[in-house]
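seq:
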Amino acid sequence: MSRMVHVIPVGVNKERLLESIRKSGYPIQKVYLVVGKDIDVDLKAVESAAAEIEKTLKVLVEVDKIKVEKMDVYAAALEILKVIKREIDSGGEVLINATDASRTMCIASYVAAQLSNSRLYMAVPKFENGKEVGIEKIEEIAIPPLKRISDDKMLIIKTIQEQGGEVESINKLIELLEGKTDDQKRYMAQRARMSYHLKGLEEDGLVEMKREGKNVKIRLTELGQAFALMSS
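struct:
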């Protein structure tokens, strides 16, 4: 049986979060608590909640922390994905518990679940007379399949990632992928094809292109880095 790993963004409602873990019914061998690096709704309250949750859980399971920029959806998703990728590569199965996640962290959790094909669940609160009185149910969120990125585009993404996430020009990218050529006709065909793929990647939010002098610098966005990570 795979080791079951839960990734859990922490807010300030520790009781609801702990109850969601208990009522989920999912096996659990390790927990990653996701907390903010420096910006949070209430940093001290979140750190206090995380410390109490860690104290409660570490009696039974292994507990670790992931520190993310909570106000940056894709940066947070990328940090979560790094941990998920490591656990998947080690044979684990990952579930993300978004019960106590902020709005930005809910989106980051969804992005991470979709890119890694992990499961996402959350507790639906129960209300009586307009007040929250517990948990109504645990709901697993269905994740639609991703738009498929072509093999040619994925090769471009991975090649840029291998260069540190940035390439100085379209010509350099062509050289890395196909080698140099003195054949003008062949070069023009290569450049047209590369420009076409890069335009699509830019429209999908996976690369950014910025003109610097005569060259166009190509850089992976954080979403592009996430794609590169999960395809490796």
